[in-house]
Amino acid sequence: MHEDSVLYSPFSFAGGKTAVNRIVKAAMEENMAADGALPGEALYSLYRYWAHGGLGMIITGNVMIDKQAMTGPGGVALEANTPLAPFKRWASIIKSQGALAVMQLNHPGRQVFKAMQGKALAPSAVPLSMGRHSKLFATPKAMTCEDIHDVCQRFVASAKQAMQAGFDGVEIHAAHGYLLTQFLSPLTNQRQDEWGGSLMNRARLLINVISQIRAVCPRDFIVMVKLNSADFQRGGFEFSDALAVVERLQALGVDMVELSGGSYESPAMQGNTADESRLAREAYFLSFARKMVAHTEMPVMTTGGIRRADVAEQVIEQGCTMVGLASALATTPDLAQKWRKNWTYAGYIPACQWRDKTLAGLANMATVRRQLRRLGNDLTTLRAPTSWWSLILDMLQRRKLTKRYLAQGQKQHSG
Ligand SMILES: Cc1cc2nc3c(=O)[nH]c(=O)nc-3n(C[C@H](O)[C@H](O)[C@H](O)COP(=O)(O)O)c2cc1C
After folding, report:
1. How many C-beta atoms surround the C-beta of residue 206 within 10 A?
2. How far is CA 8 from the centre of its chain?
3. Which has the closest alpha carbon to 228: 241, 212, 215, 213?
4. What is residue 232's predicted lDDT score, i.e. its pLDDT?
5. Is the model's pLDDT at 412 over the cut of 80?
6. What distance in Å separates the CA atoms of residue 395 and residue 198, rounded to the nearest whole number?
7. 106 in helix, strand or coil?
8. Which has the closest alpha carbon to 148: 227, 207, 198, 215?
């Protein structure tokens, strides 16, 4: 029995809210929204499994702050005037068994699929460079100062809405190459004004978003930031930059930083299997997290590769406050509970070995999303689904959802 493991000890945030244990469901975009980019029955079913899964905190998949700028079809959006009833229901389901509910907020910036025909904004007009896959993405427009202020207001409005819907907090997505990351990286931010140049200029949008959310939400409302430990691209955002940004965020009252890494161009969040040690192979960003813990007082959570209890426990023992799991909870939503009875139970993370690494990464994501859809339909998950069939099903599903998104957009414009 491992009931006395540090994994199952509670943690109280600076504002007062308490997570019953240290195990967190990390954000996974579900692409399962109902009409109007709202939460609906499929998402409620899926989150019921996690609510009953013995987790300390549940972070939603990224929720968009602008319906015209979506990371993918079937995503959820929460704007200033979005009706709150479906979000209230979502929050109450997530919290029903005692987990904290945190909504992740995001803006994709240039990481917008061309087929979605949405806004593709970026600090500078630098398109994605993904070889033959680049053509899937829209060409971004360099943002004006008005665009930047609009994005900042949208983050704040969405956070207020999340609070009014009953969420315990928000996580601002500043990782994985999305808009806030694009501002942070000198490769994508080539601006000459107060939003570009020095690290603190590049961090200005993130800092403004955080300080304004802190100003309008009470102190017990949890504010987290998901940040890259690095972009893993030459000349990009580096770990020393992450340390400096975290110092600033701490002064602004951020409650916790979730450390991840990479982007669509360099998908480090899917792991670097070349590493020799099992701990590094199964907790991709732990060495960065350890260094961050040594440098700051900020509570740190790390996500990436974790599927075993002993690894999750070591993440906490080595100084992290919480440990995030994503893929493994798609196949086994009650993994945290299973570990209580069977400490050596290993969760499943798909690891497609195709030579085209981009395609293999897409297949892994597709496999996870397939499991999420099954849970949303109250079907059992599959132990080891085939990559190619998952990818085909995912492509068909995304095509259908993209058509729906475009049709609804046209309805809005004509109405
Ligand atoms: C299908 C899928 C969707 C994801 N969507 C998000 C997201 O919306 N926001 C986010 O911060 N990370 C997202 N991620 C990344 C995960 O949060 C996590 O950082 C990454 O999968 C590594 O953790 P894991 O090895 O436990 O899966 C997603 C991952 C997958 C597989």
Report:
1. 25
2. 23
3. 241
4. 86
5. no
6. 41
7. strand
8. 207
Over residues 33-51, the pLDDT tens digits come to: 999 999 999 999 999 999 9
**Closest Cα to atom 11, ligand 1: which residue?**
27
Compute the distance between CA of residue 87 and CA of residue 166 in angstroms, rounded to an integer.
8
Q: Is the CB of 315 under 6 A from ligand 1?
A: no
Burial classification of residue 40, based on how many CB atoms lie within 10 Å of its CB (0-12 exposed, 13-18 middle, 19 or more buried): middle
Q: How far is CA 230 from the centre of its chain?
A: 16
User: Is residue 58 helix, strand or coil?
Assistant: strand
Pocket test for ligand 1, best of 23, 24, 25, 28 (most atoms within 8 A of CB): 28
Ligand 1 center–CA 195 separation, angstroms: 28
- Own/partner long-range contacts of 117-121 (Cβ < 8 Å, ≥24 apart): 117/406, 117/409, 118/68, 118/69, 118/70, 119/66, 119/68, 119/69, 120/69, 121/69, 121/147, 121/151, 121/179
Question: Which amino acid appears at position 71 of this protein?
Answer: T
Q: Say what the pLDDT of residue 276 is.
A: 55
φ and ψ at 205, to 5 degrees?
A: -65, -45
Neighbour tally for 326: CB within 10 Å: 21
Mean pLDDT value of segment 71-82:
97
CATH numbers and ranges of domains, the chain: 6-347 (3.20.20.70)
Torsion, CA 49, CA 55, CA 61, CA 62, rounded to 10: 160
- The amino acid sitting at 386 is T
Neighbouring-strand partners of residue 260: 228
Separation between Cα atoms, residue 124 and residue 108, nearest integer Å: 14
**For residue 230, which phi and psi values (nearest 5 degrees)?**
-165, 165
**Chain centre distance of CA 302:** 12
User: Contact at 8 Å (CB) between 304 and 28?
Assistant: no
Distance 27 CA to ligand 1 centre (A): 6
245 contact partners, CB below 8 Å, separation of at least 6: 184, 199, 203, 206, 227
Q: With beta carbons less than 8 A apart as the criterion, state whether 78 and 65 touch.
A: yes
In angstroms, the Cα distances linking 182 to 105, 240, 341 are 16, 17, 43
**Cβ atoms 261, 284 nearer than 8 A:** yes
Predicted local distance difference test score (pLDDT) of residue 391: 97
- The closest residue, in CA terms, to atom 21 on ligand 1 is 326
What are the φ and ψ backbone dihedral angles of 41, each rounded to 5 degrees? -55, -40
Asked if residue 162 has its Cβ within 6 Å of ligand 1, the reply is no
